[in-house]
Every structure is written in C-alpha cells, then in structure tokens.
Amino acid sequence: MPLKGFKCKKPYEILSKKEVERIHQGSLEVLSETGMTVAHERSRKILEKGGCIVDHNTQRVKFPTDIVKWAIDQCPETFLVRARNPDLTLDLGGNIVYFASFPGFTWLDPDTEERRAATVEECARLVRLCDALPMVHTLCQPVAHLGDKPPEIELEWVHATELRNTDKTIMGTAFGGSSKWVVEMVKAADQQTLGGICISSPLVIPEDQAQGILDYAESGNPQMMLSGPSKGATGPATMAGTLVLQNAEILGGTVLAQLAHPGCGVLYTGYSTPMDMRFGTMASGAVEVGIMAVATAQLARYYGMPSGVFYPMTDAKTPDPQAIFEKHLQTYLCATAGVNYIMPLGGLDNEGTHSPTQMVIDNEVCRMVGKVLDGIKVDDERLAIDLIKEVGPVPGNYLRTEHTRSHWQEEYLLSDVVVREDYNTWVLGGRKGIVERAAEVAHHLMDTHVPNPLPPEADRELGIILIAAEKEKIGA
Amino acid sequence: MTKEKLINDLKEAIIQGIPAKAVDLAKQIVEEKIDPVEAIEQGLKAGISVVGEEFGNGSLFLPDLVLSAETLKAASAVLEAEIVRTGVKRSKQGKVILGTVKGDLHDIGKTIVATLLTANGFDVVDLGVNIPTEQFVEAVRREKPDVIGMSSLLTATAKELANVITELKAKGLRDSVKVVVGGGAVTQAYADKIEADGYGQNAGLGVRTIKLLLGLE
C-alpha cells in the first residue's frame, strides 16, 4: 500500500475553463512558432526524429502542436515513485496531496544561529530529521552544497547520504551531470526517485537538464518537470503571461521525456516567483506564488497529469513570524488547490538556507493543513444526537462521557510545539515560544532518531558508485 | 477470586475508567467480606494515583482523568456504605470541600481539581456548581474540612468568593479552615485582597497550594 498522504476532495480553482484553454492555446503557439533552445545534441536528435523542427546550429527546436498533444496523451494520470519500504511509495496523481522537505544551499544551525555549508555528517542529521517527521512524506535533499566535499561531486554525496539515512523516497537532480549517478544509486538501493528537472526561463532546456530528462526517462524513473519564470525578469510581469510561458516550458520538456520513453511519469511542476523590483530578488514568499500554485494545479488537471510545486517558500531569514505566515498561506493554497506534490518543510530565505527548527514548525503547519483536507466526518456516531439529548443542559457536560474519550483524539490535533498551556504554566516552563520548542524537538530528533538502515550490500554499492563518480568528474 | 485479584481488578477498573465494572467489583469485595478500607487504599486510591501521575506526565488526558474520577466516585459509594455499616475507622490525610460559587455553572475545572486531590490522597466533598454562600458555610460546619476550595470563572461572580469568607468570619468558622480560591476570574492579587489563604492558577498548582498550606509538602 502506497503512502496515504491527504486527499483534496474539492479543489479550489482560480481560473475558468475558458481561461485555462486560452493559456493552453497560447503555450501551443509559443512552442510551435518560437520553440525552445535545447542545449543537448542527443536530445535534439530525439526531438527531430519525433517530428519536431530542429535547427542544430542555433539549437532551436520548434514543437508542432500535434506532437505536443501526442506527448500529453502519453503522460500517465497517476504514477508511483517506488520506495524500498513499500509503505513509503508515493502514488502521485488524483486527489492525493503529499508534503516534501525543501532544500537550502546552506543550513541554519539552531545552536549558533549561524548559516553555513553542511558537512556530510550534518547533512545526515538533517536527513534523519526528515525521516523522523511524519509530515515529510518524501524528501528533496535538505542541502544542495557540502562544505567537506569538492563541488563537482557534492550532489552525489548528498543523495548517497539521503539514501543512507532514510527509506522515504527522494528527489533526484540533474545539475552538473548528477542524474547519471542518482539513477545508479537508487537502483543500488532498490527504489525509484523522482528526478528533478529545471528548465531555464525563458525557453531553454540546458544541457545537463536535457541529459537528466533522458537519464530518468530511460531508466524507468518518473521526473518532476520544473519551470519557474520570474515574473518581470525571466517571464512576463503578468501572472497570465507567466502561466503561458511556464506551461510551454513544462510541455516542451514533457515532449522530450515522452519521446525518450513513451508513458514515463511526468510531474507537472511550477515554481514561478515574482521579482522584487526594489532589490532584484525573487520574492519567494509572495502571495502570488500561492496563486500560481492554484493555476498550476488546474492546468495539470486539464492535461490529466499529476501536479507539483517547488514551494511553499519564504524570504524570511530565520524561523520567525514572516516565515510562518508566508509559508502557511502558500501551503494552505497549494493543498486546497489539490497540488499533488507540495514542498513546505524546512526552507528559509528562498532556497538560501534549510532550518531544522523551521522543519519542525512546518511539520505542524502541514498536520493542520492536512486536517483541513480531512474535513468533518459525519455519521450517526459523530453526530452524537443521542448523547446531546442525554447530557442535556448545564450542569451536564461532555468531558465525563465515554464518547468524548473515544473520539477526541481522532478529531483534534495536539502539538508538542504550539503554546496552549495557561499563562502560569508557560511562565514556570521558562516562557518558551514555538521557535524555542521547535528547536528542542529538532535537536532531540536529530540526536536520537534511528532510521531504517540501508542493507549493507547496498551501502557498499553506493560507496563504489561515489568513487566512480569522483573518478569521472574530478579524476580523483 | 482471591482478595488480591479483586483489589487489583478494582485498581485496573479505576485506571481504565469503567464505572460499571468498578461497582461490580466493589460489590463482590463487600460480599466476600474483604476489608473495605483496604480496598479503598489499595484499589481506589492506588488506581487514581496512577491516573493522576499519568495525567501529570502527559500520557493520559482530561477525558481519561474525569472518567476515572467518576469510576472512583461510583465504587467509593459502595465501599463507604460498607464502612458506615460496619463502623470501621480509617485514617485521612486531609479533607477538602469544593464548589463553584453562586451564579456560576462552570464545573469542569473544579472536577479536575477534585480528581487530582483524590489522587493525592485527600478526601474530597464536591458540593457542585452554583452553590450559595449559606451552603458553603453549612458544609464547613457539618464536614469540618481542612480546606475549602472555591471556583469562580466569571468576573461577575468573583465577589461571591468574598461573601463566603465574610460569612465564615461572621459565623466564627474562618479560623477552622483554610480557604483556597481559583478559576478564570481570580488572580493572586484578588485572592490577597479578599484574604483567602491560597490561590491556584490551574488545577495542578491548586493542589500544590493546598499541600503547602497543610504542611504536607
């Protein structure tokens, strides 16, 4: 049985059917008339053979509409991302909502409040926290850089560290040729990965990402097709225009994936942020990001593809009120829009840093948003009409009824990190707020949590793959 | 069934909070002519003290606590009747009268205090809610408690706390009993102003206040 996740029964929508169709038509027009730059020769050849119009000199590929439509038809409506522990396999699509961890270039040490590159051991601790927290249904690597490994092979080391410290599914990468090694590593660990492919806006499939599309498709791993035009910079300033571009880019990448391996799983994924015109920064915590999530889910449903977003995010630099409100608003919008794959856990400062404290807070937000999706269960037992009649007016009350004892735990969430005790108890407990409590929980879990171990032979194989990657990439 | 087994089952029934089961066991204990005082000490009090402890450390919750208290009350009635009938004497750590003042129907906080006190070995007489001044005073005269605990959740009814204290003074009973007040409408400053002996911000702290006042902690 795959991981249950949550179910979004009635997705919130922000676009009309007609508006969705106008975006779709616009994207088809862009793909057929302007096309995309595909900076990878083998990919261009595959596209050419599949019927696209290719200029190898300029690397420009134009996508005739019938080929785009063919590719959409090849995409499965749902697909699995198989974990080595079958209970943790993802079943992406339909009305299922999963939450994932979010990466940072650095990590924020709660002890020193210092932001720094993680060592392999610190990365392992962060992965074990992901493993311990129940709302992390699946992982995107907690950190993208390592302080104690050469930059050329740090992603390979990060992914190996993930596989060694969790049996949950992980997202792969394609940066710097890492896809080739991720595919080998997940095979050694007897599981699949969701390969992460980043299109460069506007309209470029970079060489390593094109290679990644082929690597994941040809090895039987599903992939996340990510497009994130920044409104006003790498995309039009308008949300509608950015949707046309984002949609074109996702579909362009999807054509390549389906030509490489028809029927492969593709997650229709957006991560568009507006640019803050004062600082030139990506406003990743902006409410517009959440609005785009709702539209992204609608477009994915229009194509019959599972949807994802590479957020919720925040621009706050520490786990503070801004981090919590920006991420909560986006998480709520994503989940109620029925985005299948949402990444709310642990990210701060756009992708600047990953915070264990923030992870624990986000875990609470996800539990609560999941509770919203669960809705209200209505049946004879829960309507409690006989009970209400029996208890009658005050001084009758419900605390002393067996009904309360049997149902309150399934109906209400308790939290170890949210402050709910009375004022005096709070004072006696040291006046700790959610941030202090979350840091304590994070610490405790990182110190004590023991993941389901990777079998020793798989662990040895990862070691061999890492050595081969080092040899090929830096000749070490 | 052996005496040990019956008393242990009674303790379990208290921990699980199943009144019907506890009453059945208490009746069996009476039929088997087992010492009711021993059944109260080793069964009821031992059980409720486990519940109090587990509530304190967060492994049991209010509904468990209150249902165990109800179970205790039901089984006590059977065993206490036997004690009265046979005239056995029993030692007591302290006796506390509890009630919510006139005009106030809030029951739950006071019930929690009653349960925690019982779990800590006190004999508790719970008068209920909406208790007029005269009834508190009469109960003090009749029951001769060590402590009277009063609760007020509404600012409009907090003055009733002062009325009871005034009336206890007028009847010459004030020095015979410690007065502890609590509830949402009460603060330490207000407790000081009306010359109460103690104040409990919440149930756990209320129990601690009572223990301190009686020199038990």
Please explain how this structure is put together.
The complex is a heterodimer of chains A (476) and B (217). Chain A has two domains: 6-14 and 72-374, Trimethylamine methyltransferase-like (TIM Barrel, Alpha-Beta Barrel), CATH 3.20.20; 380-411, no CATH class. Chain A has helices spanning 17-33, 41-49, 65-74, 120-132, 154-165, 178-188, 207-218, 239-260, 287-303, 321-336, 356-374, 380-383, 385-391, 402-411, 423-428, 434-448, 456-474; strands spanning 6-7, 36-38, 53-55, 60-62, 79-81, 90-92, 96-101, 106-109, 114-116, 171-172, 194-198, 204-205, 223-227, 266-270, 275-276, 281-282, 307-309, 341-345, 347-348, 353-354. Chain A is of the alpha/beta class and 476 residues long. In chain A, strands 10-11-13-14-17 form a five-stranded parallel sheet. Chain A has a four-stranded mixed sheet with strand order 3-4-2-12. Chain A contains 17 helices and 20 strands. The two termini of chain A are 43 Å apart. In chain A, strand 8 and strand 9 form a beta hairpin. In chain A, helix 4 (120-132) packs across helix 5 (154-165), helix 5 (154-165) runs antiparallel to helix 17 and helix 6 (178-188) runs parallel beside helix 7. Chain B folds into two domains: 3-86, Orthogonal Bundle (Methyltransferase, Methionine Synthase (B12-binding Domains), Chain A, domain 1), CATH 1.10.1240.10; 95-213, Cobalamin-binding domain (Rossmann fold, 3-Layer(aba) Sandwich), CATH 3.40.50.280. Chain B has a five-stranded parallel sheet, with helices on both faces. In chain B, helix 5 (108-119) links the parallel strand 1 and strand 2. With 217 residues, chain B is α/β, with parallel strands linked by helices. Chain B has helices spanning 3-16, 19-31, 36-56, 62-86, 108-119, 133-143, 159-170, 188-193, 203-213; strands spanning 95-100, 123-126, 147-151, 178-182, 198-200. Chain B starts with a helix and ends with a helix. The interface between A and B is medium-sized, with 15 and 20 residues.
